[in-house]
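Hi V.,

Quick status before I head out on leave. The structure for the redesign project is tokenized and pasted below; the design run finished overnight.
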């Protein structure tokens, strides 16, 4: 560690000088940061410099050494204070120790005794700091590892269950920070709409989901642990005192969905599992949650489906293809044409394989896929762009087709059209939002407090998403665009020769509170200083005068 600071307190300058002569500061790794000749000044200097080693006489003016040691000990108990006294008695030693002294020396101070005590004080302080650092490092590593340990254990518990007893499971969960006080448990699987988000935005979205969920649970007397599985699905483990926990969880998810729309303009889908009363039974609730997620369009409302609302058709094979359908639609949402069509091709192949020669099975798959596609387009306001999907004759055509395999190309073309419509809609919506933002910036550029957060809030977008979208639509960052708008306004003011303004007035008028920064930005964007630009815009100096004289 770096050198320690030493403070010497004695009312005699000669004694202070003598003490300094006896101490090899460099050898001991000490630095004498200050000296004082009375207790009041000494305490003030201590607060200013915070020395780790203090060498002080007991008999000093204004505030004696023992009282000073107590005051310093109240500020920092780990300071090593060595007191110097002229009377080495047992009572004085006890009093010094009670006053937070590390050791004491008697006058006259001998150099060998002084160095022994100083070395002990330094070693003691270094060991104390080292132990504290080790403890902090261990605690830090534990805290950093805890979320990962918790996530791994919960994934194992929810996926495959556990061989532990219920009591042992609860003890394990308590050690990794999972509450276990409530009697009823329920799992929900949440899928955010990542379609228009960047990789960095997804992390922000997940953090917001976690924080919002935990906040909502606190207000509703429930406990909740939120984490994301390898498929980027949010897993909510909710605990509560009510047996009908699924209804409370459904209310929670509706609130979460509204907040996500407000913050990210993005929807989320969710499946709610069954309520259980033991942590060992959570794997069943997890399976039910994932099943409910597959039924969200059939039995759910606004993309949220509880397993209690699902009417299972255990004997119907098409249920097993729901994950493949969801994969097709998720790639459609992402706008990746190549991946979406490749996934669609795999779905067709799997349907043919599972059909076992049953053409009715394949027709049912096509109908279900078109229904899901229709729901998806309707939820995003694109159904009017593909009127063929709203025409019931399409479903009749599929069901009555003599050869349903010929419909594969038609469904293929339908997805290509959907991708094209989705791309146009996203581009149009993005352009409209950014145009609104640019208008807002032009109208408020004179406000020196205008920043990215205010501009993004004006168009109801998150700052992260707005920044990415703005750069994509304008080719400029928000800051560069704001500076260009302000400089353009400044140029107009400089061109106005009828009511000339001073440079600092123009700077304030266009939103720069710092005239120097305005000068630098103007030169960087125009290649001229404001004064040079104003002179270049002015009419020739003698033109008006000569005309008047003539």
């Amino acid at each position: 560690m770096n050198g320690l600071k030493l403070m010497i307190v004695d009312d005699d300058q000669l004694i202070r000088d003598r003490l300094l002569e006896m101490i090899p500061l460099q050898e001991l790794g000490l630095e004498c940061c200050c000296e004082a000749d009375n207790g009041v000044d000494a305490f003030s200097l201590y607060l200013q410099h915070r020395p780790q080693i203090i060498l002080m006489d007991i008999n000093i003016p204004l505030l004696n050494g023992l009282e000073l040691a107590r005051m310093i000990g109240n500020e920092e108990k780990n300071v090593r204070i060595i007191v110097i006294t002229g009377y080495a008695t047992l009572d004085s030693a006890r009093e010094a120790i009670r006053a937070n002294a590390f050791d004491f020396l008697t006058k006259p101070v001998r150099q060998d005794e002084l160095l022994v005590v100083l070395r002990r004080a330094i070693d003691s302080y270094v060991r104390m700091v080292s132990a504290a650092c080790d403890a902090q490092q261990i605690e830090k590593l534990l805290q950093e590892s805890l979320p990962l340990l918790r996530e791994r254990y919960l994934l194992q518990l929810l996926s495959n269950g556990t061989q532990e007893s219920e009591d042992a499971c609860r003890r394990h969960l308590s050690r990794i920070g999972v509450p276990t006080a409530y009697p009823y448990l329920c799992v929900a699987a949440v899928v955010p709409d990542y379609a228009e988000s960047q990789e960095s935005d997804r992390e922000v979205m997940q953090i917001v989901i976690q924080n919002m969920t935990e906040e909502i649970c606190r207000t509703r007397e429930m406990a909740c642990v939120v984490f994301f599985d390898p498929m980027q699905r949010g897993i909510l483990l909710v605990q509560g005192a009510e047996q009908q926990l699924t209804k409370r969880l459904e209310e929670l998810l509706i609130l979460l969905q509204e907040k996500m729309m407000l913050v990210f303009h993005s929807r989320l889908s969710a499946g709610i599992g069954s309520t259980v009363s033991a942590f060992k039974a959570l794997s069943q609730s997890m399976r039910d949650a994932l099943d409910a997620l597959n039924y969200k369009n059939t039995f759910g409302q606004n993309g949220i489906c509880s397993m209690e609302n699902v009417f299972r058709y255990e004997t119907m094979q098409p249920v097993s293809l729901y994950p493949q359908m969801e994969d097709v639609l998720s790639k459609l949402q992402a706008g990746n044409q190549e991946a979406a069509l490749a996934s669609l091709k795999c779905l067709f192949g799997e349907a043919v394989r599972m059909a076992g020669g049953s053409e009715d099975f394949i027709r049912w798959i096509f109908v279900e896929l078109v229904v899901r596609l229709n729901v998806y387009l309707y939820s995003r306001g694109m159904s009017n762009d593909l009127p063929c999907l709203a025409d019931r004759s399409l479903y009749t055509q599929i069901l009555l087709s003599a050869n349903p395999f010929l419909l594969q190309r038609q469904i293929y073309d339908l997805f290509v059209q959907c991708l094209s419509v989705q791309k146009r809609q996203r581009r149009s919506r993005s352009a409209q939002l950014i145009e609104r933002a640019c208008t807002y910036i032009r109208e408020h550029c004179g406000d020196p407090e205008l920043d990215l957060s205010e501009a993004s809030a004006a168009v109801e977008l998150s700052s992260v998403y707005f920044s990415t979208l703005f750069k994509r639509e304008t080719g400029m960052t928000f800051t560069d665009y704001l500076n260009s708008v302000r400089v353009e306004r400044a140029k107009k003011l400089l061109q106005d020769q009828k009511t000339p303004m001073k440079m600092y007035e123009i700077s304030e008028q266009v939103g720069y509170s710092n005239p120097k920064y305005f000068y630098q930005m103007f030169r960087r964007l125009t290649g001229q200083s404001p004064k040079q630009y104003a002179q270049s815009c002015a009419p020739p100096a003698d033109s008006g005068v000569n005309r008047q004289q003539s």
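Above is the designed sequence. Residues 111-160 form the longest helix (50 residues).

G. will cover questions while I'm gone.

Best,
W.
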